[in-house]
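Appendix B, Record 12. Input sequence as logged:
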Amino acid sequence: MCILGVTGPVSIFTIAVFGFTESVGIKFLPFYAWTQIWASIMHIALATTNMCDLISWVTRYSCETFGCLIAVIYLYTGSRALGEEFFGEMDVALLSLLLGLGTSLLSLWLDAARNWVILNKTFRDLISDYAATISILFFSVVPYMSSKVQRVNIETLSVPDTFETTSGRSWLVNLGDIHPGAAIGAIIPGFILTVLFFFDHNVSSLLSQTPDFKLKKGSAYHWDFFIVGVNIFLTGILGIPPTNGLIPQAPLHTKSLAEYVSVGEGRDRREVVKTVHEQRVSNFSQAVLIGIMLAPPLLGVLKLIPRAALDGLFLFMGFASFPGNQFAERVVLLVTEPQLRYSTNDFLKRVSWPIVRIFTLIQLAFCTCIFIITLTPAAMLFPLLIASLVVMRKWIFPRFYSEEHLKALDSDGIAEDISDSGSPTHTGATGRSARDIDKKSTDDKYAGGLPGESRSQVPAGSIAMKEMEATKKNSPGKQIPLDEKIERVAV
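Logged structural output:
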């Protein structure tokens, strides 16, 4: 279900490598090629030794933080490009702003077509699936609708007339056109690229195969990562950016293949996946269509697309990444009036608000710091900071948060267990694997006070007191976790 392509983090990494080679006087293309060759070797080694099993350590905390980081990068890239137009001619800037915001807003409106009441379900689904395509086509035509608008010298895509390299160089990079020491030193950025792809690609696979999609076909994390490694070798000797799983395109691809049904009533009404049409045709077709667009007659058509329309596409992809992301939802709840805080997810019922707030603020601080680092000369190191999110969640957070609270705030619906055969197995909607079904959930321990009384009927303060009393009774000499102390003070 994963869609491959060049991601925003890869662009940041490539720019950082280019800046490094310029500062030390090394030729960029050979160094970049050796970086990818070393990364390819590491990818293949990790895949053949089944190291993708470590993806079981990745939970909703890491996935959603990374997803929001990608969304922010898209939003920043699109808005910065539109803003820079105002340093030039005003008519060009205003038309660019119109095209960019128009593409973004129209895409968001058409993307919500499934919630419309007009037309039939087939047309609504079709419009929603091709929202971005329709919007780009429409606003690519807008500059040519009027002779007055055509006089505005707006920037379009810079595309060569024939299928060739931009600079006219040979297709294969001369690997010997660099000092041997620099070629060996490229192993360091190669390792950083491997860390980035180990997280980026596997997270995109996780997000496109979450239990919410109810997929029936098995996953192939090790084999997929092996293929990515082979592709990196090819892109390296060609001197082009490497490809891996795309966010948000990969999960959006799965969503476009899903059939939804409405459940619940009133405020609890929401769309859930009924089934997903699992196949390889759509993945293969998009790659073929991209190849077809490289034919000389169609390359001329690409020249007509305004850059501003693609900036609007970046804005749309950024905003489209937030729905379904609990981290983004909790950030909105931070600025929501207390009486109006509501979520279809149950973390507000299972965890007191002070703990939710602190957990979200910590997550937001890390996401913000990583984003700021991507704007500095140290941007090449940001994949290591992303990997540190997994370390924090696995070894540091359990010291400050109880297991029940971490289950409610983090592992629900994303984390996967690794089967004995070495392949990740999908968990249920509660984040539990099949072998955990027979175990009594820890959450049931505090599901409510009296028999037959649901947790939603029990005041949050009463639940907090019962949890602390149970902890004190069962472990008299054990220190109360920090989050329970916070909750106790709040009560």
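The two ends are 46 Å apart (CA to CA).
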